[in-house]
User: What shape does this take?
Amino acid sequence: MQHRLKAWLLVLILGNTGLFAQTQLSIQVFSGQSQAPLQGVLVSLPREGLLDTTSASGKVAFANLAPGHYHLHVEKEGFKARDFDLLFPEENQLTLTLLPSFIELSEVVVEESFSRRSQQKSSLTVQNRSASLQDQISANSLGESLEDLPGVSALNTGVGVAKPVIRGFMGNRVSVLDQGIKQEGQQWGQDHGLEIDPFQAQRMELVKGPQSLQYGSDATGGVLNILPNKLPKPGLSGELTTLYRSNNTTLGGSGQLQYRKQDWFVRARLSAQRYRDFRVPAEEFTYNGFVLPITNNTLKNTAGQLLSYRFEVGQQKEGYSSRYLFSQYRQQLGLYPGATGIPRAFDVGTIGSTSNLALPNQAVNHTKLYTRQNFRLGGHWLQINAGYQFNNRAENSLPHNHGFEELDSSQTLALGLQLHTLTLNADYSWHQGQVEFTTGLNQQYKRNNRDGFEYLIPSFATYNGGVFLLAENVKAQKWNWNAGLRLDYGSINSAASFTRWWNDIDSLVLRSPALNRQFFNYSAAAGISFVPAERWNFKANLAKSFRLPVVAELASNGVHHGTFRHEQGQAGLKAEEGLQLDLAATFQQPRFLATFTPFANYFFNYIFLRPSGRFSNLPDAGQLYRYDESAVFQTGAELYLDWHFWRKLHWSNGVEYLFNHNVETNLPLPFTPPFSNLMQLNWEEEHWRLGASWRFTAAQNRTDRNEDATPAYHLFHLKAGYDFKLGQQAFTLQASCTNLFNTAYLKHLSRYRILNLPEQGRNFNIALKATF
Amino acid sequence: MKMKKYWALPLLALAFVACTDEDDEVQDTVKPQINKVTINEKDHDIQVTSGTEMHIDAELSDNEELRELKIDIHDVFDGHEHGKKAEWEQVMVIPLSGKTQDLHEHVDVPASATAGAYHAVFRVLDAEGNEGDFVELNFTLVNGNEPQFNISSPNLANHLDYAPGDTIFLVGTVTDDKDLEEVKVKIEEKHEGHDHHKKAEAALFEEEIELTGNADTSFDLSNFTIALPASAPLGEYEIKIEAIDSDGNYGIVKGELHLD
Assistant: This one.
């Protein structure tokens, strides 16, 4: 009460001096612990692009606001972030308290995602990530940099190619959104990595659990949401980072320049990297009873290069904001020769030059052109995003390795896939009393053309469209609920595909029948987040999700090089539908956080590859595998503990476990991430940081048919960072050592595991960043 | 206390999980096996003649039920491109049954097949789709048109003895009815016996000579200076001399070499 009186007095005094009394939103923030006003609290209206910091009396004001609904973020380091909805000018004053917390996870609120809420109010666990320099350099790719989050893994193909795996779900069961647009890069392919430069993805949000409601098909396992970068500060600014990794002699860097003048800003980033064959702590590997050499501990032909650039232009006004983005990601990397045929001693024995990128190799070019347009209409925001993507993939190898004797060795395109995607999304929110409704529309059109002397999938065109309605209560303190419904339509079309038979150049054989499928689906979800007392939070989310089959599952008919499997689609497969339950229990004190997140999923018709018990008639091809569907049950949990036990020392431990079962085959699913425990100890001072981590990964003995079990292993990593200034110039030096003891280990989720090839050995990473 | 009853929520989820009945039937994930396989009754140093029948004998077994055997036959010319290619390539899938089966197959080797190094890869499946380890047998295909060797010294049929630092003097010629393109000599460490152990490091000695004429019908092997490095590790080696003609036929001779 006292606070309100003081606030009123101040407003009266201020109001007499100002002309803005009626169009001003006044906020005052107090510490929930000491009851004193809090200075330096960042109060923002993200949608409007307005932000300010509280004064010594804990106050901040926003003037010249149009009437309507506003969403407010209140954040300060060392305190738990909060968010508020208010209707202005009916509510033009806000007094609030912040509770102290040293747990970084709770210090941030994220606006651009669909949750738009603090962690506490969301019914699913949302993990925010502001990628630090350490995150960007310690892992070889964006997918792998997320592996330290509990429940998240990555399926990698050597170094440089990795796809995120959330609770065992990958490929088309995980949606990756870049600025709100779903990334389409033939992600059904096991060795197709995520085509996003880690230096570009500075703010991310990872949601574990189904988000079919908001994002449609493919979001059954979870969503990785790469958020737009924050607005640059006025004037010219930028940064330059250079990077070196010892294990594969990576030399790289990334530079960004940005300029802001009033409403407008422009930003450009360029990243480049070149690396050589990577080194492993083994001299030989055993495959099919053969012992083959790993000469000089180096895996032949695993060198690569990456070039990525992005231009961005944007405008932020009071009732309108826009962004325009153009980016390209160009990557070429070698594939270990033994991985695309029977490994031959003469192929893998002599390395030659370690920087040479020879055959077989993979190349991907991903081009994006996007725009986001936000308009304030009727007191609320209408958000539209539209984009075009072109994903051009090529897998190159020598033709006569696969039975195409008459082809000239200069024709090396084995498989070419050119995918064009057009996306258009729109959403609008409005309020009705305590409830905020959001309605949205998503549309996507894809067209793929195939090329190359090998055949795997046909050319195709698909269309997906969905509408959804989401409701959540926004004013509640103890009970937050949300519920929604979504309807989707999808169509998949491809013409009948003919190719020649391998040993008959004049023949024409039907490889894939014509496809003309239409799908209608619904998704629904309901969730609650209950805060019985300030320290506790319980969440429950029940969702009915779906996933459209991808063309590979319906119409593929060819050999997947490296696994020798001949994969064949089944044209009549139904869309996957599942019931997913996610729970969470969180206990939080200022210095301690514990969060337990169990889940259970049941899929009525999970699509999987089933061994047929028959061989393929193609040369050098092994068994024929057919896509089939079955009921699948999956459950597991993560437990995460975070304890700031002494001033700057911070200990955390994340445990993850997953169990799945395919009812038809009565076996586990392949590539199930094993039980894992990651313990970290960090010491953070103002200008320097030290960290050590220990990851224990248990053996994975729950394997699918024809999948090998993988033994347990321990990995240790160290990291250190130092911020300093030379004159006016600010620098950060970051160094880390991954796989400190050069442990030889097999990773269950690795494309090269099938050859019993160990993962990368000890690696020293060092980066220097200059910010101006 | 309100808080306590909500503890049950996560536990309920686990209970739901634990109570789902799992089929107790144990799945057969035991791989079938290729216990023995021979071509023309040999499993090493196999020579096959074009225009004849190749005899394949295989002994297979599984714990439950065998389903299929696949035989892939093709060349393993090491990526070199010479002249026209008429390399023979064949794919066969043979149905199997029972827990054990002894197979005898005849494969017609085409008369026009290019001579050289080939391999046959044998793969086996059982009824459940379990994939056994594959077996690879290497053989040399001859058709009479490939380069022919006439070496008087050293006698490659004998076990040759040399010491590190020695020079091997090849006395002899390689001839072809059309045109020789390339002749190669390679000395590599030899693996023990004919088991699955196949290990290869960088060759001890390797030299290639290309013949650029259009009608090189003869080549003097003394053009090779085979100097064994003084630092060569002692042990068993294999010397292989290959000649390729303009039709892509490979003529191959091998010998065993002992360094001490």
